[in-house]
Amino acid sequence: MQTIDWNHLGFAYRKTDYRYVSYWRDGQWDQGTLTKDGEITISEAATALHYGQQCFEGLKAYRRKDGRVQLFRPQENARRLMKSCERLLAPSVPEETFLNAVRSVVRANEPYVPPYESGGTLYIRPYLIGIDGTVAVAPARTYLFSVFVFPVGAYFKGGLTPIDVVVSDYDRAAPYGTGGVKVGGNYAASMWPNRLAKEQGFADALYLDPATHTKIEEVGSANFFGITHDGTFVTPRSPSILPSITKYSLMYLAEHVLGMKVEERDIPIDSLSEFSEVGACGTAAVITPIGRIVHGSKTYRFGAQGEVGPVTRRLYDLLVGIQYGDIEAPEGWIVEV
Questions:
Q1: CATH number, domain containing residue 310
Q2: Residue 157 domain-assigned (yes or no)
Q3: Could you tell me the pTM of the whole model?
């Protein structure tokens, strides 16, 4: 194993020792295996390359203070991958197969799980692609399902520090398209707007609904949430928003632990003044508070400059405490490796 500076991980791919690989052929998945080979071979005419028949997931393994390793709600990732596969007419990976694959890869790469005190995690990337060649726009006959892992630190360099975002004129997904599933095309569509945002000095772009461009949808590759002045947790609802496992976990904690009112509804971009705190959430970033949103000639500011809002802080501490095993989790949320 390579020497790693656990305190300066960043969020970048690093090859680890083992990954899981399984193939769908003749109408069924094979038994799957662990391999040290980090390269894959597919047809030059693979549907994943030409017609976007590919989907993926993202989750993490956490080192507890006692040294044990655990996963956070991996069943939800398995179910979301199944929905993505259904949308792409690809064979679904059974939930138990998904969970066994994830556990086996984490166990095999256990030395790469960062120590508890580092605040790092082992990022887990399951993916599924059509690999045989066809020139017709049709589903593949052969598929690859694989899981690889690598240690990571904070997604944003500043950690839990408010960022500034700008409302984009571009869309990340079409109305009733693939925005609600985790496929690569949605992320490819976000790269140009993200670059434009960064060239203007912002951390990321904020997307409005693709049908009317009047309602908030996502922040880059993360879900949006806001805390109203009267203490209500609000997050957008739309068929073109990816259903974030982190977001739904925060909604549960806000309601059942903090006793807050929770609403999943339309959020008009012109209604931002109703919020005292806003942020983005997802597996990679966990929670990223937003200090400023720029929409055309309007600028909206939230909280004191450079400071995290009190509710956002409480939600972050709750969620991270559960993920690292410091706080008791709701039933079924934690799976030990």
A1: 3.20.10.10
A2: no
A3: 0.95
